[in-house]
Specification:
Largest sheet: 9 strands, mixed
Strand content: 35-45%
Structural class: mainly beta
Oligomer: single chain
Radius of gyration: 15 Å
Number of strands: 9
Shape: globular
CATH superfamily: Electron Transport, Fmn-binding Protein, Chain A
Number of helices: 2
CATH class: Mainly Beta
Order of helices and strands: EHEEEEHEEEE
Number of domains: 1
CATH topology: Pnp Oxidase, Chain A
Helix content: 10-25%
């Protein structure tokens, strides 16, 4: 199931998570995943200490995803999609969608209209 999270709620939501995985896409169309500690400035997520590959990927393909794993087993993951801008010492991500997500507890009927069959909460 998914639970939507607005950008107004994102700062509060982030306090329940320790770290995230940043996903960028490489030249070979494969995801590149790295553990990061993003901060929220009220408008954008900011990721510092970018590696060479992450910096190159985000410069060429600015669409990125950040995934915070659940703090506890069975908890929600936070998934944030956005568009990144690479600066001198950081990646600034403008959030386009944010959702709290976890697998449904029991088999669910097939959703209609593209709805999530898991336990998800839209954020934005």
């Amino acid at each position: 199931m998914s639970i939507a999270v607005t950008t107004d709620e994102l700062g509060r939501t982030l306090t329940g998570f320790a770290f995230a995985y940043l996903l960028t896409i490489g030249d070979d169309a494969r995801p590149h995943v790295t553990a990061v500690s993003p901060t929220w400035d009220g408008r954008r997520l900011r990721v510092s200490d970018l590696g060479r590959r992450t910096r190159a990927n985000a410069t060429i393909r600015p669409e990125v995803t950040l995934v915070w794993p659940p703090a506890d087993p069975g908890g929600h993951s936070l998934i944030v999609d956005g568009t990144g801008v690479v600066g001198d010492d950081e990646l600034a991500v403008a959030v386009t969608r944010a959702v709290l997500h976890r697998a449904a507890a029991a088999p669910a009927p097939v959703p209609v209209d593209g709805a999530c069959a898991a336990d998800c909460v839209e954020i934005t």
